[in-house]
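hey m, so remember when u said the tokens were messed up on ur end? i reran from scratch. heres the input so u can diff it against urs
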Amino acid sequence: MHKEDCFYLGKIVRKHSFKGGVVAKLDTDEPELYKNLESVFVALGNDLVPFFIEESLLQKGNQLRISFEDVDSEADADAILGSELYLPLEFLPKLKGNKFYFHEIINFDIEDVNHGYVGVITGVNDSSAQALFEINANGTEVFIPMIDDFIKKVDRENKKIIVETPDGLIDLYLNN
């Protein structure tokens, strides 16, 4: 399994017992969807290794206490401490309406209600306070904030997102 075929589920943040138990902090708004998993992929170096779950318990909102098969000592738990957890993309719940996963909209066209066709979404920058669509507009990089009020329609069938941005935002990038 390759990382590009998976989504980031969370990270093992601490040990839980002397018997190899660990606690993972899940990166999701719906942790209850992942409380009965049979297995996860653990990132070890550049590899994703399947780990089978003997028992798991959701605690403190988005923390999942996990007992893995063959991880039955503190030393075993130390070996995976800090590792990221992944699941195959098909495990993601389908989103409807104007909700979307960042990976899902790459290569979608983006159109502004007033400006018209802007370009192709090449990525999402979520390292700032506000996530941004990264758009290639004929070789010029354009950034549009991913604000719910701006996003008018996510058209999965035609691979297009329609936005309504404030006057002048797109022109800041294209009228140099």
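this time it looks ok to me. Residues 61 and 98 are 25 Å apart (CA to CA). if urs says something different then somethings off w ur setup not the seq
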